[in-house]
């Protein structure tokens, strides 16, 4: 099921995930996963986020690079990194936007979230200038502990109707400098994301 397209596979021993079993990590480029695998990943992510997770939330990540952790053919954890553009103070940066980070409920506590984020962050460092994500409240400390920086300034979006304010008290935007020094990201200037259907951040 997991041998889809030209996806790159690696195997992690138990020491990496606090288990005696062997974990397979798949890094799949856009278009490499078949429908069965994508459906399985969507089911996992929906189960993790509950009723607040909507169809467009999943679709935002479908065309990204997928990180999947499996064990004995079962999907245990997932994340995606989508190429987006972020603008700040007149500069446009390539960004790896992380979404769909989920661990199967009965596999919590095994370090699988750390595993998928290790790979997601490696993708960002290799391919983008910034990482970005919008965390749920319970996950914010996890990202902060990994070195992600909470964005304290205003946020906007470059929409078909022009640049609009995107302030939402429920948003918890984090950024991860990759090819960009954190000194270039003053929170006195809005961070502007590109347009997409549904939630903009």
From TrEMBL:
The gene is aac_2. It is an enzyme of class 2 (transferase). Keywords: Acyltransferase, Transferase. One of its GO terms (molecular function) is acyltransferase activity, transferring groups other than amino-acyl groups. This is Aminoglycoside 2'-N-acetyltransferase. Residues 23-179 form the N-acetyltransferase domain. It comes from the Bacteria. The keyword Transferase applies. Its EC number is 2.3.1.-. Gene3D superfamilies: 3.40.630.30.
């Amino acid at each position: 099921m997991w041998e889809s397209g030209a996806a790159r596979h690696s195997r992690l021993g138990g020491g990496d995930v606090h288990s005696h079993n062997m974990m397979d990590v798949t890094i799949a480029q856009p278009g490499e996963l078949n429908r069965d695998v994508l459906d399985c990943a969507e089911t996992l992510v929906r189960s993790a986020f509950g009723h607040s997770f909507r169809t467009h939330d999943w679709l935002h990540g479908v065309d990204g690079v997928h990180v999947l952790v499996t064990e004995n053919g079962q999907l245990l954890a997932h994340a995606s990194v989508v190429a987006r553009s972020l603008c700040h103070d007149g500069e446009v940066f390539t960004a790896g936007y992380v979404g769909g980070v989920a661990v199967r409920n009965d596999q919590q506590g095994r370090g699988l979230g750390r595993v998928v984020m290790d790979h997601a962050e490696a993708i960002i460092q290799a391919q983008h200038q910034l990482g970005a994500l919008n965390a749920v409240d319970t996950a914010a400390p996890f990202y902060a502990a990994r070195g992600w920086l909470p964005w304290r300034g205003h946020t906007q979006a470059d929409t078909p109707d022009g640049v609009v304010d995107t302030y939402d008290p429920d948003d918890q935007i984090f950024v991860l400098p990759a090819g960009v020094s954190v000194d270039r990201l003053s929170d006195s200037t809005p961070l502007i994301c590109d347009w997409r259907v549904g939630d903009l951040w």
